[in-house]
Amino acid sequence: MVYRIIDPTVEEVLQRLNDNYAKIYDFSADMLINVNLNNQPLDKPQYCRYYFKAPQNIGENKTAAKEKTETFIDAARTVKTSIIIINGKDMSSINLATLSHVWQLVVARC
Can you give the pLDDT at residue 110? Predict the structure, then answer.
């Protein structure tokens, strides 16, 4: 077996990452979440709509990936109950019934 040692430059590594991200597209999906323990439902089903915005890695317009999950009261998906927003390493949850910011998680950046 022959092994090859590679020593990429920083620019080569960044270009590889950009090439990988170029394959990711924006999308959205309707979701139904059921949580079970030992085949028994733990809660009623959650009806959600998920959005994903792909990161932009071009020039000075670089952005992190963004995600949003909206939770609704029923399958019609007309009345929202909460929203979770992820922007890069920042994550927030908002309870729409009380209009309160439930929690926020900020991951330390290196």
Answer: 38
Is pTM beyond 0.70? Reply is: no
Residue type, 30: D
| Cross-strand pairs, 52 | 27, 67
| CA distances in angstroms from 53 to 18, 23, 27, 79, 88, listed in the order given | 15, 13, 7, 23, 11
CA dist., res. 106 & res. 110, Å (int): 12
Q: pLDDT tens across 60-110, in order?
A: 666 777 889 999 989 998 888 888 888 877 888 888 877 766 555 555 443
Cβ atoms of 9 and 22 closer than 8 Å: no
Half-sphere exposure of 23 (CA within 13 A, CB side): 4
Check residue 57 and give its pLDDT: 56
Going from the C-alpha of 63 to that of each of 13, 87, 89, the distances in angstroms are: 18, 9, 12
Q: How many helices (H) and strands (E) does the chain have?
A: 1, 8
